[in-house]
Amino acid sequence: MVYRWHQNYFYILYISVHFYISEFVFFTEEERRVRANDREYNEKFQYASNCIMTSKYNIITFLPVNLFEQFQEVANTYFLFLLILQLIPQISSLSWFTTIVPLVLVLSITAVKDATDDYFRHKSDNQVNNRQSQVLIGGILQKEKWMNVRVGDIIKLENNQFVAADLLLLSSSEPHSLCYIETAELDGETNMKVRQSLSVTSELGDPNNLAQFDGEVVCEPPNNKLDRFCGTLYWKDCKYPLSNQNMLLRGCVLRNTESCYGLVIFAGPDTKLMQNSGRTKFKRTSIDRLMNTLVLWIFGFLVCMGVILAIGNAVWEKEVGALFQSFLPWDPPVDNFLFSAFLSFWSYVIILNTVVPISLYVSVEVIRLGHSYFINWDRRMFCSRSNTAAEARTTTLNEELGQVEYIFSDKTGTLTQNIMTFNKCSINGRAYGEKPHMAVMFKRVQPLDFTAWNPLADRDFCFYDQSLLEAVMVGEPAVHEFLRVLSLCHTVMSEEKREGVLVYKAQSPDEGALVTAARNFGFVFRSRTPGTVTTHELGKAVTYTLLAILDFNNIRKRMSVIVRNPEGRIRLYCKGADTVLFERLHSCNHELMNITSDHLNEYAGDGLRTLALAYRDLSEEQWEAWAERFRGADKATDCRDDRLAAVYEEIEQDMMLLGATAVEDKLQDGVPETIAILSLANIKIWVLTGDKQETAVNIGYSCKMLTDDMTEIFIVNGHTVQSVREELRYNAQGWGGACAFGNGCGGDGASNWVPNKSKCSPPQAPPSSLLESISGEFALIISGHSLAHALEADMEREFLETACACRAVICCRVTPLQKALVVELVKRHKKAVTLAIGDGANDVSMIKTAHIGVGISGQEGIQAVLASDYSFSQFRFLQRLLLVHGRWSYLRMCRFLCYFFYKNFAFTMVHFWFGFFCGFSAQTVYDQYFITLYNIVYTSLPVLAMGIFDQDVPEQRSLEYPKLYEPGQLNLLFNKREFFICIAQGIYTSVVLFFIPYGVLSHATQSNGVPLADYQTFAVTTATALVIVVSVQIALDTGYWTAINHFFIWGSLGTYFTILFAMHSSILFNIFPKQFHFLGSAHNTLGQPVVWLTIALATVISIAPVLAFRFLKLDLKPQLSDTKKRNGSALGRLGRGGSRRSGYAFAHQEGFGELITSGKNMRLSSMALATQSDNSHNNRRTFSL
Fold first, then answer.
1. Where does ATP bind (predicted)?
2. Which candidate in 118, 378, 410, 869 is catalytic?
3. Binding residue per annotation — 228?
């Protein structure tokens, strides 16, 4: 694999240069000109190739760019500066290798890690770029890699293939050059969409004809607008307007279409998918940013100490040092006390630099790597169904997982499985069906077996209520009519692969679930023509004449069909939102409507998506009169849509209620529980989805983000800047009214309330302090067009404050770029750690923008995973990632840093105090080998063990008590205050370690009367006391003991004594007499009882205040992790009384009814043609929309 990377490096270099050229074109290109089948003409514009790059480096740029990024770390620059100083012999009392070796080690480890991460990005890019595509070259279809496709090429796509680039659809195998696409990678929606070529190019289906096509397209430059395209095709001296309906965008999948041809308009980085994906950003944690600041402060502190000691050197050399000039002259470069002080300053800068040793950064990387492996190895985050384990794709953000305050989640494929199942229904006042898991758990009921009596049944359909099947069998009229509505009132297309094997092509998964339910209960939709619908009702073929389809749209929230049955009776069947349908029922339905409403409330409470069903009988005269009015509205040249809506409204009245359906948009396992636990951890979850409002709201209820106990749910749907601003401000007034129990202009129903300016004063933006005081039992739902205005500079802060005061926020119909802008808004103004989670290419921009990006390896490809920092297969694993791994990583890193700064200040500041007693000569207290080994051997492993393995509470307690997560959000465990406490403790310890041995040994003697006050004895005593004190301190700091902790702590202590005696032994002295001068010093010093008493005294004085403080804190102000108890809340919520909400959600789109009745989307089979011929006498009154 590495060979392949090197093999392609020249090509990668070319692509890199070409990418930057294309970026230049993006900013300067005003319009794009593309000529079909003319590469020479198109290449002069230097359009981007179809090769994509999500990687950051190539062979040439890796070293300079990576080093530039690494030296953005203040510490790396600081150590480089120290290395340069150590190369000057006049000022360096330490060897240069003590700095260059750790520095090169840190840079190398980080570079290898970055190169590995980028190699996998190159690998994934190569997988995409090397996909095969059929390109028309010289009149012949040839297989080409995606990266070799160029703007102006004509490509052939086949069913279930990904679209390679942004294409202008030229022709299709389907009637009228229609084709169906799935856009899940772009907007998260899995319902099919229709695209159609221009009629002038629809006949170019043959490669020979397409090879002669030389049309030129003039269109807009590359942009990120997924729902808009504006261009013109010039061909044969004519021009033809182009729109988004003629385009196939990269990332879409061709569905239910045998083949089609398209002209490449945008390629590679210019495609709308890549324009929305954002740039790969260099992410740092908040602790990294704080560390940069602290390093600067420490450097300033180091300079101050150096200045103090340099001034001391100048004074000493002038007042005292002159007396020693006769036998201890200055070195040749030094000729006066000021120059001596200048050199002394730099010498002390080198000696005291260990306050921030480079081993700190090596240790941090090792700890992060260990935490990443814990995530990868966590079996509780492994999905056996998909055989997918959790993966930490980066090692630099682990502790940030313990500080998340905002989660931005996609809906489709992330919260849901995008699988619709028919669960319950209400027919003529009787409820049928129950939840499968409840049935299996309590009644041990098996799913109904439909295949025994219905050979056309779908074997994957599951239903558990036997009573509905019995009602069908005994012939209850209401049940039969209910199922008949489901089999007739839809826009599904049926394809019979072989005899008895039906495949439904549904424009939305909702419709597919409903038609499949009717199919299994014996009312099988079999086929359709533009004027007929053929069903099998309990085994009997029945053909209905399709007189009209009253199409669905988001305003009507319903669809109807008018059919004539074989007996000649005309009936209108309607399905739609209960809130809309109930208003159009006949007055005699009042009692049934109340019963059905109760059932709908129950279904909505279970988070099911509901539709109400009704019918109306029409006389021949009513039909003829209405049909005449419809023809007039359909042919109107102005306000056609409004006229049609009015005509639809006329006929959809006085209907008879049949019942309601309840479809479950299946959530992923554990989603409601995960959201509930994360909410208790004070994490706010925002859902950003491309789905329509009703669908998103329904899922909000299903996963318990929205509840009926909420005080109010506000909806912002304004289409102008002013209307959006007014809705936001009136919603805020509604909060004030709700909090005041309705004594204001807001109150209940504010979401749908049109403000009456005569009664209420003009809305004013509420102060942020008021918004912050809101209890949070509110929700905000905002649409994409409103969000576009809310994100403008003069309104974004008001929108943010309003949204952050809500417990739940759902943004509907948002583009990938809008998702990223919302995340960026929170990052910029709230200064909170954000996490974005999604599973599709439409989530990539959001994932890259957030502090932490999580990819779900779901059904929408792997683009989100490739762009993410962490990945797994189920949303429910997020709670474990944050509350266990994230919390532990933050806790461990904070404890590690606190201890590390403490032990190094305790070690280094001894040199400072010693300076006042050695004539400020920059002499070190410890020997050079102890200084080198202190951070590498004596104290490195114990602190690493604590940083990798430490715990305050077991993992189960972390999940049981989510409030334990809050210290990370509030940044309590390591901040500037904690840093100064650690520094103060370190300085205090250094004072004890220096002055206790100094005071004792200056007057102590050996047993033979020889004084102990010599340099070697003092150095050994102080060093030994230091190692023992910091070892005792880390033993106190360790909260979770393992065998590894014991081995490292006590083993490091043993290692110190072993090395100490070895360095002072005669063996090394005989081998290296110039390197090891102090023969026998360790044995002589540690053989004195007074030395051990001195070490014990220093240890007690250093540790006693720490123990006393911790016992007092534990007794007087214990933390939640200390008590392991959670305080319950007795606060209630303001409910909305007996108000009911609709569970309506229908992922359908307008326009399919017109396609069906026009026949444009049908390839008529022989059976359908025969059926149409037999019923031709009934079709004379049928008309097309």
1. 410-412, 511, 552, 575, 609, 689-691, 813, 819, 842-843
2. 410
3. no
Whose CA is closest to 1053, among 1026, 1074, 1073, 1075?
Answer: 1026
Residue 820's φ and ψ, nearest 5 degrees, are -65, -35
Q: Which two tokens stand for residue 900?
A: 């590390």
163, two tokens: 């679209």
552 annotated as a binding-site residue: yes
Residue 379 assigned ligand-binding role: no
Strand 238-242: give its sheet, edge to edge.
Answer: 32-35, 216-219, 231-235, 238-242
Q: What CA–CA distance (Å, rounded) separates 940 from 963? A: 32
Question: By three-state DSSP, how is residue 410 classified?
Answer: coil
Q: Which residues contact 577 (CB under 8 A, 6 or more apart)?
A: 557, 558, 611, 612, 694, 1142, 1144, 1146
Q: 795 burial class (0-12, 13-18, 19+ CB within 10 angstroms)? A: middle
- Which of 283, 295, 245 is CA-nearest to residue 394? 283
Three-class SS of residue 766? coil
Beta partners for 498?
501
Beta strands in 131-255 (DSSP E): 132-137, 140-145, 154-158, 166-172, 178-182, 193-196, 216-219, 231-235, 238-242, 247-248, 253-255
From CA 734, how far away is CA 749, in angstroms rounded? 9
**How many residues are there in the chain?**
1185
pTM above 0.90, yes or no: no
DSSP string, 389-406: --EE--SS-GGGGGSEEE
Q: How deeply is 962 buried, as exposed, middle or buried, from its count of CB atoms within 10 A (0-12, 13-18, 19+)?
A: buried
Residues 6 or more apart whose CB falls under 8 angstroms from that of 252 comprise 162, 163, 181, 182, 183, 185, 186
Cα distance between residue 415 and residue 875, in whole Å: 6
Residue 751 has pLDDT above 60, yes or no: no
Q: Is 460 a catalytic residue?
A: no
Say which residue, 42 or 5, is predicted with more confidence: 42
Tokens standing for residue 1103: 């540790």
Asked whether residue 815 is marked as a ligand-binding residue, the answer is: no
Span 1080-1137, pLDDT tens digits: 788 888 989 999 999 999 999 999 999 999 888 887 777 766 565 334 333 233 333 3
Specify the pLDDT at position 1139: 46
Q: Using alpha carbons, select from 232, 959, 183, 239 the residue that is nearest to residue 507.
A: 183
For residue 735, give every residue at least 6 positions away whose Cβ sits within 8 Å of its Cβ, in sequence order, or none. Answer: 712, 746, 766, 771, 774, 778, 805
Tell me how far apart the alpha carbons of residues 500 and 573 are, in angstroms, rounded to a whole number. Answer: 27
User: Does the annotation list 843 as a binding residue?
Assistant: yes
Do the annotations mark residue 819 as ligand-binding?
Answer: yes
- Asked whether the beta carbons of 105 and 362 are under 8 A apart, the reply is yes
* Structural contact between residues 778 and 805, judged by C-beta atoms closer than 8 angstroms: yes
Distance (Å, rounded) from C-alpha 903 to C-alpha 1031? 9
**CB within 8 A of 512, min separation 6: which ones?**
420, 492, 504, 506
The b-or-e profile of 990-1018 (16+ CB within 10 A means b, else e) is: bbbbbebbbebbeebeeeeeeebeeebbb
Q: Is 708 annotated as a binding residue?
A: no
Task: Quote the pLDDT of residue 119.
Answer: 87
How high is the pLDDT of residue 288? 85
For residues 701 and 610, what is the distance between their CA atoms, to the nearest angstrom?
Answer: 13
